[in-house]
Design goal:
three-stranded antiparallel beta sheet; single chain; five-stranded antiparallel beta sheet; alpha+beta; 48% helix
């Protein structure tokens, strides 16, 4: 009878023969042998040798992405700064006298350029650094699909929840880019009017005529009228009697206009000669003559007041009468206050014969 003995390795036999070490009663830890330490070091060195090339490639790729992002951000921000500086130096009115373009002083150009440059630099930094961060995460084999999907959903939620804020911000950006108004301008924003004291990307501050401060959201401004750009118009309507001599009226107004245009400070406030436009309206008993002139922005009311003052004095000197309102009041002689009174009556005197005859008879005394 043949018996088959299974092959047993020498290590298995030795391990079976030698009992496994058990912790001693004193609790002293077992110190690994030199052979175990050599095997662990060999395994670690092999693992590092197998993966060092991958690590080096990932590190170099991340370093390259960061270097490119930093250099690109620096170049783009520098280009934006130079462009804004050049724009602030060269932007100005088309016509040197200011009649054909916008009045933009140096301080206003500087503030506008700084605001535009700040917005553009922030947007450039956000786009460049955000793209670099996503590329670095992709280098580490991180799945960006859930992250991008979550960012998209969050963006939509923020867009719906803060749509007024987004509208205000975008409106403020376009207002600054288009130079619709600036600090110091007098504007009519529809919801409020006054002088602009601060322009922000979300809110514009206006100081009203009575000193109040209006906070106007940029997204609420549907239309805006800038009273400080270009030039203003001073219009004065003079109402005279319909029987006045038009030639004399026109000559007097022309003399006032010529004299005003030569005196200071009105020669600086007037940007065009004062013109007598002619008859604006004719009624049965009055007629209106209009005088107009182009003035410095915001100075139209001042010029109108001065023109009215000078025209009134000139008309008084020449004998031309100015009537008030659309319809003149005819000169009617004053009525005699005694005309409506009745003539004195004879009965008014107690001693007149008529009064004595009309007086009642006294009652007779009856004695018994």
């Amino acid at each position: 009878m043949h018996l088959e003995v299974p092959a047993v390795s020498l290590s298995a036999v030795l391990s079976a023969a030698v009992p496994s070490p058990t912790p001693s009663e004193s609790g002293t830890p077992v110190v690994p042998s030199l052979q175990d330490a050599q095997e662990s070091a060999t395994n670690a060195a092999g693992w590092v040798e197998e993966n060092w090339s991958t690590w080096l490639a990932i590190g170099l790729r991340v370093l390259l992405i960061l270097v490119i992002a930093v250099v690109l951000r620096f170049v783009v921000r520098r280009a934006i700064t130079k462009m804004v500086d050049r724009m602030s130096r060269t932007s100005g009115p088309v016509n040197p006298t200011g009649l054909g373009g916008l009045l933009v002083n140096a301080e206003r150009r500087r503030q506008r350029s700084q605001a535009i440059g700040s917005v553009l630099r922030s947007m450039a930094s956000f786009l460049i650094l955000g793209t670099a961060a996503l590329m670095v995460l992709g280098t580490f084999q991180i799945n960006l699909a859930p992250l991008l999907a979550s960012a998209g959903v969050a963006g939509v939620a923020i867009g719906f929840g803060a749509r007024n804020l987004v509208t205000d911000f975008l409106s403020g950006v376009f207002m600054i880019l288009e130079d619709q108004y600036g600090v110091g301008d007098s504007v009519d924003a529809g919801v409020a009017s006054g002088e602009v004291i601060e322009v922000g990307l979300r809110v514009t501050k206006l100081r009203g005529d009575n000193g109040e401060i209006w906070y106007v959201r940029n997204g609420e401004v549907k239309r805006i009228g800038n009273l400080s750009q270009g030039w203003a118009t001073a219009n004065v309507d003079v109402t005279v009697r319909s029987d006045e001599d038009l030639d004399r009226v026109k000559a007097t107004l022309s003399e006032v206009a010529e004299k005003t245009g030569k005196e200071e400070p009105w020669n600086e406030l007037l940007w065009s000669p004062i013109e007598v436009l002619g008859l604006d309206s004719v009624l049965l008993d009055s007629m209106v003559v209009r005088v107009s002139a182009k003035t410095m922005p915001g100075k139209s009311l001042t010029v109108e007041r001065e023109l009215r003052w000078r025209i009134k004095r000139a008309f008084d000197a020449t004998g031309i009468r100015i009537v008030g309102g659309a319809t003149a009041v005819e000169d009617v002689p004053a009525a005699d206050p005694t005309a409506g009174m009745a003539a004195p009556s004879a009965y008014a005197s107690a001693v007149s014969p008529q009064s004595i005859a009309a007086s009642p008879l006294p009652p007779t005394n009856i004695t018994k």
